[in-house]
Every structure is written in C-alpha cells, then in structure tokens.
Amino acid sequence: MLKPNTLKLSALSAALMTLPLQAIGDEDHLVTAKAIDHAPIGVMGDHLHHKGEFMFSYRFMQMSMSDNLQGSDSISNDEIVTSVTAPNSSMNLVRVVPQTMTQNMHMLGFMYAPTDSVTLMAMLNYIDNDMTLTTYSGSSGTTVLDNFNTASSGLGDTKLSMLYSLIDTPEHKFHVNLSWVLPTGSIEETGDVLTPMNMTSNLRLPYSMQLGGGSHRGEFGLTYNGNNENISWGAQGLYNLAFSENDEDYETGKTLQITAWANYGFSDQISATTRLTYIKSQEIVGEDENLTAPVTTANPANYGGTTFLAAVGVNSVIAKKHRVAFEYQIPVTQDVNGVQMEMDNMLTLGYQLAF
C-alpha cells in the first residue's frame, strides 16, 4: 500500500504531466480556425471564443456616396433647389446641395472569453468624413454660386458587447448579441460653409457629418452559424435604439439590420464569401436648433429609410491564427426618407489575431 506522502506525490506528478496536454488542447482552440469559420469581415460579433482566448482586430471601412435620391428615385440638383423645403432655415427652399461624401472609419476591436459561453467585446472607432456641396445663389432660382468642402474627424461612438452562447455544436452555433453604445463621438462639429449670400460662415455641421449620435444606445440581436465540410453559412439580426435624447435635443432613429451570408472554402486557408443585408431605419427624432443652413442634410426628416445590399469578399487565414479579409458591398435597392445622398459602395478591409 502506498503511503499518504507517496500518494500526494503521485497525484502531483500526474497533474503536472497533464499540463502539456491541457496547453496543447488550449492551443488547438486557437490553431484549428479555418477560413470558413469566419463570417464576412463586414459582420461584427459573429462568433465566440473559447475560455481564456483573446482576439485583436483592425478594420478599415470606406463608404462612398454621390448624387441624391427622393424616395427611390433620382432627383437633380435643380429640382432640389426649386422644390424641396428647408424648414430649419430662414429660407423657404434648400439652397445647398450635397454632391459627394466619403466616410473612412478605422475600427479597433478587442475580444476576450472569460468562459466558453461568454465572450466580451469592445469596439473603438475613428471617423473621417469629407463632403463636397454646391451652393446656389440667393433664395431662389438655379444659378450656381460655387462648390465647397466640409470635413470632420475624430473618435466615434464606442461599443461594449457581450456574446452569450445558446447552442454550440460542431455543425451549428447560435448566440445572443447584447451591446451598449457609449456616446463618445462629438455632435458639435463645425465647418466653414459657403452661404447663398456668397459669404463664408463657420456653422454647426449637419447630422451626417457628426462623429456620434450623442445618446446612450442599446443593441440587441441573435446570430446563427452553420457549417458542413468546406461550406459555411450564417445569419444575424440586430435592433439598435437610443435610450434618450442627446444634449442637443434629438436622437438618431431606431435601426433594424438583418444579414445572411455563405462561405465557400477553397482550402483551410482561403474562402470566398457572399452576403445579403436588409437595413430599415427611422428618421431622426427631435432636432438640433443650431443647424440652420438651407441644406438637405440639416433636416431630421431626411434620414432613415430602407436599403438592400449585396456583397462579395475573401477570407484568408495565415499561420492558423492570423486572418486577413476584405468585402465589397453595393446597394441593390434604396428607398430613403425625404431627400438623401445615394450610397455607391462600401469597402471593408480587416485583420484579426487570436491568441
């Protein structure tokens, strides 16, 4: 019979011997990732991690817009300045018309899994907006005065999220997305504006040129992932809403987004993705009384609508824990509230590192 001390020593030796096996098992969680294990890079919060795992991500997103829509139909500059009202301005009609807009966003993401069932996520954004506009002379008519540019840049709103697993099998995964959006982005950005009286004034920039929403927001949703050999697929639904008005007496509209994707793996290291997205958002509620320029983007009613998007992309996994991916997205249909700029495309480039 073994003595107590011998038993303790044997138990300790056995435990120490299992540590390399546990380490190998933990490492396998990190190194078995395949390209088809990931949703398209434009989808956020698509997967959980195993207990103790971290992930760092960087995304560059560029959205381009040009020309204008009224509902789902194109509307010319001359039609806008002769028929569209500017209720927030001292002038009856819109006299400043957006022509093009580019928004560049740099997004840093951090994920950590305290348990196999819960993954925590934080996302920080830096936004750079640039818009070209045309000013028409006087309070009526179609005489063009000149073009000018406005810009804004800085920290955007910050998102803190929790992903909670409901189903986790090799073939099917299903989890809850819960997020709190912190109003860290400025809503008081200003810029030099060419007025219809041929004067340059420094004015509060419209809602679309601000860096955040100014309100605490909640986002709630569900995400599903499935796979079979070299094919994977998934879907995600998210509902986003403001908890209250911001300090400028308005809140951005509620938004529903539903997206579905498919992923075909040519090998463990590379796959091609395709995705469809439906977005429905409401107009801005309330208004910022400091927005007085006779421009379409200063009217809260000219926000929100319904958009249907299609996208293609590529996922690649390098050394089993580095992911590099891109996605290119275009609108299939757009039906906007009031008069708004038309989206041309969105490009997303991303890198992720799991450790």
Overall description:
The protein has one domain: Lipocalin (Beta Barrel), CATH 2.40.128. The strands form three sheets. The protein has a twelve-stranded antiparallel β-barrel with strand order 1-3-4-6-7-10-11-13-14-16-17-18. A two-stranded antiparallel ribbon has the order 8-9. It is 10% helix and 55% strand. Mean pLDDT is 91; it is low at 1-31. It is built from two helices and 18 strands. It is elongated, with a radius of gyration of 25 Å. With 355 residues, the chain is mostly beta strands.
What are the main properties of this structure?
single chain, twelve-stranded antiparallel barrel, 355 residues, mainly beta, Lipocalin, disordered N terminus
CATH class type: Mainly Beta
List segments where confidence is low: pLDDT < 50 over at least 5 consecutive residues: 1-31
**Topology pattern, helix = H, strand = E:** HEEHEEEEEEEEEEEEEEEE
- C-alpha termini separation: 45 Å
Helical stretch tally: 2
How many strand elements?
A: 18
- What is the structural class? mainly beta
Please name the fourth-level CATH homologous superfamily: Autotransporter beta-domain
Strand order of the largest sheet: 1-3-4-6-7-10-11-13-14-16-17-18
The radius of gyration over CA amounts to 25 Å
Give the proportion of residues in helices.
under 10%
Globally, the shape reads: elongated
The whole-number mean of residue pLDDT values reads: 91
When the domains are counted, the total is 1
